[in-house]
Amino acid sequence: MINLLLLFITFSLSKQCSEYTTNEIDTVDSAFECIESIETTEKENNDIITGLKHYLEAYVFKDILKNPPQPSFSNNYYEKVDIDEQLNKINTKTTSMYDFYSQIQSLIISTRDGHLGFSVDEDLNKPNSELTNFFYFLPFTINIDNDKKMYLTPRNEIEDIPIDVPEGIVNNENVAVKTINGEDPFNIIREFGKKYSALKCPHAQFTEARSAISFGPLSDTPLSKEYLNTPISITWENEESVTINYSIFKLSTPNKSLKELLQGEEVKQGIKPKLTPEEIKSRKEIGKRMKTKQGIIERYISDDNNVYCSLSDNKINTFVITAFDPEDAYVESYEDTITECIDLFDSNNYPIQVIFPKNGGGDYDYSQWVQKILAPYDDVNEIESGRISDFTEYLMKAGMGTILYDPETCEVREKEINPQTLGEWYTKPKIIKYGDVEHKVSQPSTENWEAKKLMKNPRKPTEIVVYTDSFCYSGCSLVTKGLKEWGGAILVGFDGDPNGKDEEFEVGLSPTSVIDLNEMDEDNIFTQYGYKVGISVRETFRHNYNYDESIPREFLTDMIDERVNIYPYDILDETIEEFEEETKKIIEKYQTKCNPKNKRLVKRDEKCDKEINIEHGHGGYECGDNGEWSTKCVLSYCDEGYKFDYNNNKCIEDVCVYPPTDDGTPSMTVNLVMIIIGIITLIL
């Protein structure tokens, strides 16, 4: 009886979700009364675990994660994860949706694959969608200056609701932070990244955590009530100090969408916002050519602000891409802007700097296009395989097989959707072993590039500087990893951990294909309960034309060539100037010096063409072990229509340009023979 009374009193005092009628700032304890009242059932939990076990059979890294291959510099860089074993450990008896959800998120994070996702789908409007309206925040944003010190900028309001910012934070906005919780102030960001970021590289974790630690949706990062209630003690270099706590912002569902709110926060973090219709109209009226105080001679910006390029008085071309996924309404502007950027770069001979600020990837076709613009001789046809499973077979039959090609014939794997049986490329799989772990995948296929406009005046690799913050993700990493593999540009790290190791700064992460399960299978079990799932379904490999690579690029670390002390990219022209100054130094440096750890980047020179004497091949000078260009000539790239076979040091015909005939003779060769015979006949 007493227990029932206590339960009644607790329920009476707790805050119900229905009591939030407007946007509101609340305490952690009060907000969690609503959050913890969102319930689940043992049946629902078991259904979800069973569903995950079924669909994650198609997760391409499911086997590899049990015993991942490690890089030379670490024996535990990639964490070992047995997904089925961890799913079996999840408590399905809990009735707290947040508790159950947090356990699954912990498993997802442990894979360090940002493509693998399990989240609440707010559009399905199920009871759990209430969680998407809760945001944790601190009363400041974190900034890092070029002096490698941390500064805290007061967060004065969220959605026009004033925040009670402690006086110490206001007064010390321009004073560097000395310690947080008595430690190096960056440690709190590093630890947050290790625990809550699903990215592999420490620098990428840091880049993500720097903003996520001070603001984020609990549906993305389900922090515990205990964590959020832990005080944070800050001491500045002037020895002033303050102790602060997290608060919760509750978004009123009808008021504003989750996407719009997060977009507003991104602006505060220095990420370029989308233009309003009025701004688009105004800009079109004044034209895209303009002169500014910062010396911008000409610039082009897509209507969604995802693509930006300019030419400055500094004689540097700038190309900024924040995403490869234009919204439907902006596709035409996105593509037109890239075309305008190509024309701009063709109008001069100046170096090109490319900046990828927190680029989350997107459409594969656009990433291929951008790499080809920068490095037209690169092979951008990704070599891919999928894990053999019932759901993978379903995906291949449903249409995925029609976009994959036989790399040795350039013939499409499946010519029709929903064939009764897939071809031998799938039914006779390839088996790769990682110790005692067996990885059974489809035979290597390519996803081919659809030709688009390229530069008429391409630059040499030593005239292109590509800046990456390591967060460069998915489609973005296809570009950076591709450029690193082929030696197509100088790769430079910015942002990341100011005191992290440069040798651990990866150019990008997750070069894989991902599906949204709710789009591929609308009747899956997760939609019934209000969730959505993302799965990496095709791994990519290095361009070995024997097609026998055994380690996917997901588990191959590609590191930067150089590092600069520039932290978050900002929309201001002054920031572009900072990059330009660094670009000029790097371009000048690479006239005589180079990265001895990157033998693929070659200083191209026509003088080497004769010395290497390789048919259809062009040469350059290799980087010496002393960090200076040697006098050794090596193959650098091949003529259009030919691929650079690096392993065998030769140029081979691209079968998509020279497809084999029935007798094995390239069709173009046959056509040339017929033309010659025709000419001879005419002469006779």
UniProtKB/TrEMBL annotation:
Name the UniProt record assigns to this protein: Tail specific protease domain-containing protein
Keyword Nucleus carried by entry: no
Alphabetic keyword roster: Signal
Signal peptide: 1-19
Top-level taxonomic group: Eukaryota
